[in-house]
Structures are given as structure tokens and as C-alpha cells.
Amino acid sequence: MRKLLIAANWKMYKTPAESTAFLTAFAPLVKHHDKTEIVLCPSMTSLPALVDAARSKSVSIGAQNMHWLNEGAYTGETSPTMLTAIGATHVLIGHSERRQYFNETDTTVNLKLKSALAHSLTPIVCVGEHLNERESNLTANVLKLQVSVALEGIDPAALAPLVIAYEPVWAIGTGRTATPEIAEEAHKIIRTQIAQVAGSSVAAATRILYGGSVKPDNATALCRLDDIDGALVGGASLDPASFAQIIINATH
């Protein structure tokens, strides 16, 4: 019922030339995986080149961030209209590094989600707890709050494109990965909270990805679970062979 989605978050890596070279090497490796939605999220400078290069490929291109307004005196920001104008189709919202280093809040996540939906961008909203919150048994509280505020004031009928990415912050770039059981439990909490806020039909249709040191050797165990609908991949997505193997393993 929910199509598997595997997204690459390249963070602050790859020039435009490096991005298109990646796609040239990567596309043949996954050309038969049309049952999986594949999204590459490069840096802003690589977006136009990658959108052009992906036009004949079964790969979508997304941004790592955006402002919620269409225009304004906001130096260094990128608007949703700018993203759609160049052909981007997806956008990451509220990644933990945006929250940690650039003061992203649950409230700005909500504003960006509303804007992404209004501009027909597929939003990938990131939620997740820090290590001290998990050790204090606050994981459920944190996830419920993040989901509730993100969806506040949005008509459930508008949430069909919504994707949530569960990223335990303690597992991002650390080499530590949530066990499949830990990940599945968190995904159930998120899906239950979506149901409470937006209804059971929206919850049943929403794809929830796992993010946090996803690699080829753990992709199968994670993605075979009922409530895990794919992955948001960081470091392991920078190499075309590695990212392709994650996609292949996730479908088994």
C-alpha cells in the first residue's frame, strides 16, 4: 500500500560536477527498481544540474531545506517557488542538523510543511530524539510533540504527500544504529500520533522512513518491518555503489 522510498541526504558534499557524475554511475545500478521511489537531496548549488541530469532517469531531486515564504529580504535562504521553478519535487524539513546548528524549531517546521504542501513539494519531515532524551525514557514524548506541532493547523486532506523520517539523533553519523525493534517501536509511536492528529486513514497512508547510519548491511532488516517504509540515508549515500546496494537490499 505504501511505496518504498529511499532518499539520499548529501548534506554539504558534492559539487555540481560531482553530483552529475554520481548520477551517471548510479542510475544503471537501479534501473530495474521502479517499485522504489528514489530521491537525491544535494546541496542547493547542485540542484539545477542534478534536476537536468535526472530528467530521463527514475530518480527525483529534492532540496535539503527551504524558507516558508515565497520571497523576501532573507539573505541566504531559498524559497519554495525557487525550488519548483528549477524542477525540484521534494524537500527535507527539520533535519536534526538544521535544528541543532541553525535554530530550526517545531514551529518553523510547521510553517515549512504548510508551505511545501501549498507548492506541491513532497515534504520529508524529520523527527527524532537525542541520546539523553532516550535514556530518560522521553522518546515517546519528544516524537509526539514534534509530530503534533508539525501537523498543527493543516487540513488532513492536504497531507497525502506527507513523508516522515524518524532520525534518532544519537544514531546520525555516529555509526550507531537503532535496532530494528527500537526503530519499529518509534515508527509505531509516530504513526499512532499521526492518527490522533490527522485521522487513521492519513496515518495508514503516510510513509515513515528510518534515518540514522543506514548502510547496505542493515537496510534489509530495517525495511522489512511493517511500519518502516524506507530510509533517509546520509554518509552511505555519497557512493553510488553503496547507495544502490541499500536500495537493492531494502527491497528484499
Low-pLDDT segments, ≥5 res: none
Please name the CATH architecture.
Answer: Alpha-Beta Barrel
What is the CATH topology classification name? Answer: TIM Barrel
Strand content: 15-25%
Mean of all residue-level pLDDT scores: 95
CATH uppermost class: Alpha Beta
| Percentage of residues assigned to helices | 40-55%
> Count of helical segments?
11
Tally the structural domains: 1
Radius of gyration from the CA trace?
17 Å
So, the CATH homologous superfamily? Aldolase class I
Distance N to C terminus:
16 Å
Derived structural class: alpha/beta
Order of helices and strands: EHEHEHEHHEHHEHHEHEH
Q: Order of strands in the sheet with the most strands?
A: 1-2-3-4-5-6-7-8
| Overall spatial form | globular
Largest beta-sheet details? 8 strands, parallel, barrel
Record field, number of beta strands: 8
Describe the structure.
The chain has 252 residues and is α/β, with parallel strands linked by helices. The protein has a single domain, classed as Alpha-Beta Barrel (TIM Barrel), CATH 3.20.20. 42% of the residues lie in helices and 15% in strands. The protein has helices at residues 16-26, 47-53, 80-86, 96-102, 106-118, 131-135, 139-151, 180-198, 200-205, 216-223, 240-250; strands spanning 4-9, 36-41, 60-63, 90-93, 122-127, 163-166, 207-211, 230-233. Helix 1 runs parallel beside helix 2. The radius of gyration is 17 Å and the shape is globular.
